[in-house]
Structures are given as structure tokens and as C-alpha cells.
Amino acid sequence: MTAELVRGQNHPLPHTRLEVRVSAGHPVVACASYVDDRGTGREEWVAHPGARALPGVEVPGQADRSPRFTLQLDAVPEAVQQINVLLALAGGGGPDRFGATAAPFVAVVGDDADEIASFTITGLDTETALVAVEVYRRQGAWKIRAVGQGYEGGLADLLADQGLIRAREVAAGIQATVALPAPRTEPARLATSAEAGPAAPAAPDQSSAPDATPSGGRSLSDGLSVPAAQAAAASAGPQHTPGPDAPQVPSGPVDYTHPRRQSAAPPPPPAAPPAEPGRPSAPVAGDATGWSMEERLYNQIWGMFEDLARTVAAYRSAVEFAENRMDKELDQVLSDPRSRIGSGGDAARAAARAKCEELTDQARQVLDRDLAQLTAEAEVVEPALPPAFARWDNPVWHAYRVPMEIPMALRIGDIHLPESPELRLPLLVRLPLERGLWVDSGRSSSDAAMALDEGVLRRQAADTAVALAARLVAVYPPGEFSVHVIDPAGAAAGSLAPLVGSGVLAGPPAAGAQGVSSVLARLTQRVDLVTMALRGDAADSLPPDLDRAEQLLIVNDFPHGFDDRAVTQLRYLADEGPAVGVHLLMVADREDASAYGPVLDPLWRSLLRITPVPDDHLADPWVRHAWTYEPLPVPPGSAVLRQVLDQVADARRSWGR
Q1: CA–CA dist 163, 33 (Å, integer)
Q2: Rounded Cα distance, 269 and 285, in Å
């Protein structure tokens, strides 16, 4: 899946051989430059049409509408920390600023021809040169960052900003070596009598749009959006067809909106086949609005949740109305002394109960109809879910591959209502996590918790936490999610075995009071540093050895091994950590922490409580339902969890993370 980047956003590169494809709609000069770890370049570190190659980099030999850069990252010298992809206007009768033409579009393609990332450079005005993207090293791996920084002074100012002393001379030499292709014209010929008459308007130039639509604009998949006004101006232009290399000077306004988000409506969802008269349409997976199948499935799941909540609320309201009506009718019968006894009273009471049963049956029929429709939809949606949305027993996990980008959300369990316990809907939380999780290891009021031994319940709570941590690690790109564990007494050693054995933990589980203090101090310092850097707009000044991945801290058997200072640090991480990528996963019994009194109440309220056994503790403020939560256990005897974690570990090793 292609990552659509915005300015400042980065993305990992899974390949060392890449092609950077640019589509500008007008001739641009393609250059590339090296910089070292201080952000400084050299004159011999610039590739341009007159000197096309550097070690690991090759650029086109002339100005082009669709230049392509070839990168072989393994061949880049060790002293080089960053490769800049540069674009400059070619001149020669073309546009005099980037703001006068369509926004350049950059796509990064791997050696398997799959598009890895894309970036549309919007918001340009008077700039004549720009840094499109940066390919840089980070902890031994390569990443790409969307930049889109323009320079009104052209290549001279751009190269000077990179530390070149003779920047103006180098820029002038580059412009001098650019060979602009001359416009080609049709050979003159006399029109025959059969050809005499008005000349037909020329079609818009589509040489830079490989999959152009018949109207002359680009399709959504191309990544560019040519305004209708520009296409109309082209079709009413000169009475000859421009050559494929002729520079295009657009007329009319230019649309700078993001071509994949705001310039058009999202693609329509898949349509269900026509249904027979009198029958509902067959459900279809992804039958919701969205720009991707993942987004459509996410919206469809929440639509199913809303439908189930509404239909159950309507059923409960109808039953309550029927019972209240029966009570009123019975009160009227009892209030009349003549009808308290005798056959007349018995008939009135029987009629009231019969009416109540009739209304209840009608409501149940409507509920059953809606539940049947939702059940059919769930049966279609469940097999189509991606790993982040799927249960462990879904076959999609057996075809699991380490992803290259973060999904929209993560499934942390199932929810259902007592009217239809067999209809289970996925409980999704958005990523990155906005709040921590608390797996309750104590006995709650649920029948399932009361039926289990205390030791078994604690073990299941630890297993639930490990399964959740494994899902988080599995749905993030390699090295983008780190897991730390605090297990003061080693009580969760058996449950933690998959995480420890696969090597996906950032370090061994911390034991004892000293281990608790060390891990909390390290994560607290990270929260402090990142918070200060973000507030001061100085993210680049963070220490180079700082792990910038999302962090998850699993705390088992709380509050064993915690003193007052550690409790304060834990509360700080719960409150301030999610905003800077530090998340908390507690495995605890609230009764065990009652000795701290109300000091921990804010901590419990800030975490999302889940249970290792079914429990109807999830409140619904929308229609005031009590939803029953069920965890996502790994099927007994299944090795899917370990297989997934082994793939994650292998991907991290191959990426050097």
C-alpha cells in the first residue's frame, strides 16, 4: 500500500534500489545532492544533467516533464547521510515560477515496481527551485522524508543553503548544460478541397499523463489533478497538435488542492448484485465510504455497531412501552371494584397481557430481522479484514507479512449485547493509541471471573496483555514500535515467553525495585526530552541515540516493587506519554492497589479497562447500553502468535533495527 506523505512526514524504505519518479507537467531540471551528518554539501557532491552520476545516484541528462532518479543506496559513500532530490525550472519559454503550473508529484518505486510512497508538492508560488524529498540514514536504515521546500532565488539559493561556497557558479553551470528540446511543428502543406473548412481543435497534450482520462485530466490513481479550466484552454488552443516535448504554458487558474483527498469525491464502494424483489441486498465487504479498503472496512464496522445499538435500543423501548401499557391497563382494572373479581376482571387482565405479548412479539420480529441482516454482513466482513482488524483465528494471520505503514486502527476485542450474544462486533481503537490499557486481573462481578481461580485469572490477564502487545508490534513497520516489560516478581514469565523468545522486546523484563526504577526513569526522561523538543519546534535536536519509535510499557503485578516515586512516574507516563508516543499497558487488580488510596484514581480513569474474560463493563453513553467485552485469545495449540513474532524479529534484523 502506498504511503501518501505530507510535508515533514517520513517513511521507511524497504529496498536499497529505488526509482524516484517526478511528474511536473512541464520541463524541469532534475538534480541530486549529497550532504554529510552536519547537513553540509560539496561542489563535487551534486549530480546534474552535465554530470549525471554520483556513487549510487543517477539523474536524467536533460530537462523533462517526467524525470526519473535512480538510487542504489548500497553504493552511497559512508560519509553521506542524506540525498536531496532537487527540481528547478528549465526556462526557455516555460513557466517562470512553480506557482504558475500544476503541483509536482513525486513517487518512490522499489525494485519490485511497487510504489512505496508518494508526495504532492502543493502550496508553491514564486519558487523556481525546490528540494522535493530527502532520502536519509537513520540508525543504519534508510528513510524518505517529504520536504517540498522552495527557493525563490533558484538553484543558487538552494545550493548555498546546503553550504556550497561557489553555489552561484555551480547553478549557472547546471543551467548552461541543460539542453531544452525545441518545440516541433507540423510541416506545412496545402489543404485539399475535401479538407477545406474550419480546423478541428487540437486535443490536450497527454504526453505526461500515462493513464490520462479521455477528458484530458489525470485519473485519481495518477496522483495529479489537472483543472478542467486548464484542459478546456488546451482544447481551444492553437490549431495544431503540440509535439510531445513541447513546453506547456497553462492558462487559467491552477488547482493546488491535494489530488487524493480534496479534489474529488472518494471512490465509490463496491456495489452489491441486484437483489430479488422483496429481499434485501446481499452484504458486501467494504460497503462504506473511504479512500482505501482499510478505511471502508473501518467505517463499515462502526456502521454495524451503530445499527446494532439502534435496533436493540428500539427493541428495548418497544418492550418497555408494552409493559408500561399493560401496567396501566391492569391498574385501571384493579381500580374499579366491580372488575376486581369475576369473569369480567379476568378477561380484562388477560386482554392486557395478550396485548403486551403481541407488541413484544412484533418488536422481536423487527429485531430478529435486523439481527439476521447484521449477522450476514458480519459473516462477509470478518474474512475480508486485514490483520490489524482480524481475530487470531482468521486465516489472514497465516499469510501475514510485516507491514510498511501503520494501520488506521487495532482490534483489541469483541463486543456484543445480550439480545444477540452470537453477533460479535470488532472493538477497534485508533492508532497511534490515545490512551493506555488496563487488563483487570482481579475478580469482577462477571460470572466468568467468579468461576475462575485467582491464579488462573491472573495468568489469563497476563496472556491477554501479551497478545495485545504482539498485535501492536505486528501491525507496525519494522522497528517502529518498542516494548518494555516490568515484571517485579517474575510472575508472568510463562506468559511473556513468546515476546522474550522471539527477541522483539527492547530489553529483558525488569525485575525487582531496581529494575522498576531503571525502566521508569528511562521512559520518563524520553517523555521529557520529546515534549520539550516538540514545544520548542526543535525535533531535529534530539539525541541521535534516542529511540524514536512508539514505546509500550507493560506493567505486570502492580503495585509490587513500586515505591511512591515510581507510582508518581507511572502516573506521569499515563498522563503525558501518549502525546509523545509512550503508552501504558497495565496488568493489575485494583483491589491490590487500594493501599495507595485515591492517589491512583486518576490513573485508573485515564486507562481503557479490558478484561481477560467476558464482562459487560463497557458503558455506551450514546444509547446507554452495557456492552459485553470479550478478549481475543490465541486458539489453543496454535503457533500463530510465535510465527508472527518470529517474522517481526527477522524483519528487524534484516533492517538493522
Answers
A1: 11
A2: 9
For residue 335, how many other CB atoms are within 10 A of its CB? 9
User: Helix, strand, or coil here: 345?
Assistant: helix
Secondary structure (3-state) at 582: strand
Would you give the distance in Å from CA 304 to the centre of its chain? Answer: 21
Query: pLDDT, tens digit, for every residue of 481-497?
Result: 999 999 998 999 999 99
List the grid coordinates of 388: 490489524
Quote the longest CA-to-CA distance of the chain. Answer: 114
User: What does the DSSP 8-state code read for residue 161?
Assistant: H
Distance separating alpha carbons of residues 326 and 358, to the nearest angstrom: 11
* pLDDT tens digits, 55-110: 999 999 888 888 999 999 999 999 999 999 999 998 767 788 888 888 899 999 98
Sheet holding 425-430, edge to edge: 425-430, 409-416, 626-630, 615-619
Beta bridge partners of residue 411, listed in sequence order: 428
Number of residues written out for the chain: 657
Q: What is the 3-state secondary structure (H, E, C) of 474-529?
A: HHCCCCCEEEEEECCCCCCCCCCHHHHHHCCECCCCECHHHHHHHHHHHHHHHHHH
Please state the three-class secondary structure of 115-150 as a single string: EEEEEECCCCCCCCEEEEEEEEEECCEEEEEEEEEE
Distance CA 228, CA 74 (A): 44
Please give the span between the terminal C-alpha atoms of the chain, in angstroms, as a whole number. Answer: 22
Residue 323 has pLDDT above 60, yes or no: yes
271 C-beta neighbours (distance < 10 Å), count = 9
Rounded Cα–Cα distance for residues 555 and 587 (Å): 6
Sign of the C-alpha dihedral computed for residues 290, 295, 301 and 305 taken in this order: negative
557: helix, strand or coil: strand
The type of residue at 597 is G
Q: Which pTM was predicted?
A: 0.60
Q: Which three cell numbers stand for residue 285?
A: 465487504
| Cβ contact 432:650 at 8 Å | no
The residues that bridge with 141 in the sheet, in sequence order, are 138
Structural contact between residues 48 and 61, judged by C-beta atoms closer than 8 angstroms: no
Task: Output phi, psi for 437, to 5 deg.
Answer: -120, 145
How many Cβ atoms are within 10 Å of 116's Cβ, its own excluded?
Answer: 22
Cβ atoms of residues 96 and 139 within 8 Å: no
DSSP for 398-439 reads GG----SS--SEEEEEEEE-TT-TT--EEEEEESS-SS-EEE
Rounded CA-CA distance 356/564 in Å is 59
- pLDDT tens track for 12-66: 898 889 999 998 878 899 999 999 888 889 999 999 998 999 999 999 988 888 8
Distance CA 383, CA 291 (A): 20
Amino acid at 304: M
The pairing of beta strand 17-23 with beta strand 68-72: antiparallel
| Contact between 83 and 143 (Cβ < 8 Å) | no
